[in-house]
Design goal:
The complex is a heterodimer of chains A (about 190) and B (about 110).
Chain A (H helix, E strand, L loop, with lengths): L3 H5 L3 H14 L5 H7 L6 H13 L6 H14 L3 H15 L2 H9 L8 H16 L4 H9 L4 H24 L6 H14 L3
Helix pairs in contact in A: 4-10, 5-6, 5-8, 5-10, 6-7, 6-11, 8-9, 8-10
Chain B lengths: L1 H19 L6 H9 L9 H8 L5 H9 L4 H35 L2
Helix pairs in contact in B: 2-5, 3-5
Classes of the chains: A mainly alpha (about 190), B mainly alpha (about 110).
């Protein structure tokens, strides 16, 4: 990462944890996870709580759907680290890598239900343009999503509009394909806590 | 409903912590970073964070350091800029949703 403190500035507790994770998984701890341990009272602890609620809390969206939203928002943000992380996690959660690939290649022709498709269009517009209006939300509701689902999608969008900015600014290092797969497995088993 | 409210409370806690809790930068600077407003020239990096973080370079970080900012200060201000930009987007979405909900209830 571009700041040395984010590579080497951790206390003894996180350093031991990183070593244990590396030992058992065979892969380095992803920078997205490391960042949340740096002065965790400043940002990491509260952001992890928010992200866990958004991604793993009760919702009419499946975990796979929310991971797909995270991947799609990351695509708009041009954040390779976040795209790989969440497309691998969504693919594993859906048991359908082709579906995820199709969405990232071209949403309009992708094989997803209309409520999810229109929700992805909404979060993409919000990410790209910084704002949406009432008509944009109405289009998603007309497609069959509930207001609660729109709200849940906005939560996911906030989490990954933040994380993608940090990934690109601090320069999160890309993992090997096996590393991203291991990360996806971990996120599905343990979540974002 | 409780879960939805809970997420909003956690988001508020996050923002409050970032802009008014203890830090190695002044609260005023963190508010400026959060709002992407009135930033001094060596911190133009923060505008990149807010508007197009994909274009941040090693040189942007280097310039902030050369201007006298420590890595911890850069860390704090970048986090504030990222959360601030994402919060403005979030609030735009929530406001549009609230309008739509109240219009539905109003018939």
């Amino acid at each position: 990462m571009r700041l040395d403190i984010l590579n080497n500035g951790y206390g003894i507790g996180p350093r031991v944890l990183f070593k244990i994770i590396r030992l058992f998984s065979g892969h380095p701890v992803p920078d997205a996870a490391k960042l949340t341990f740096y002065r965790s009272d400043f940002y990491g602890n509260t952001m992890k709580t928010f992200t866990q609620l958004a991604m793993r809390g009760p919702s009419a969206w499946s975990i796979a759907d929310r991971e797909l939203m995270a991947a799609y928002v990351s695509k708009i943000n041009e954040s390779p680290f976040c795209i790989y992380t969440h497309s691998a996690t969504a693919a594993r959660a859906y048991h359908d890598p082709d579906k995820v690939e199709a969405v990232l290649a071209g949403l309009d022709s992708a094989p997803v239900d209309e409520p999810l498709k229109q929700t992805l269009h909404l979060v993409a517009k919000l990410t790209r343009e910084g704002r949406v209006d009432d008509d944009d939300v109405r289009a998603v509701l007309s497609a069959g999503a509930s207001p609660e689902q729109v709200e849940d999608a906005l939560d996911v969008c906030f989490a990954f509009n933040t994380t993608a900015r940090l990934a690109n600014t601090f320069g999160f290092e890309l993992l090997s394909p096996e590393g991203f797969e291991a990360g996806a497995k971990y996120l599905l088993k343990r979540g974002y806590r | 409903m409780a879960v939805h409210q809970n997420k909003k409370v956690v988001h508020e806690d996050l923002v409050k912590r970032l802009v008014s809790g203890d830090g190695m930068t002044s609260s005023e600077d963190r508010v400026r970073a959060f709002n992407n407003a009135d930033l001094p020239a060596p911190l133009e990096l923060l505008t990149e964070v807010a508007t197009g973080a994909g274009h941040v370079t090693d040189g942007d970080i280097h310039r902030a350091k050369m201007a006298g900012f420590t890595e911890d200060q850069i860390f704090e201000l970048v986090v504030c800029a990222a959360v601030g930009a994402a919060t403005r987007q979030y609030e735009s979405g929530l406001t549009a949703l609230a309008h739509t909900r109240s219009n539905r209830q109003g018939g």
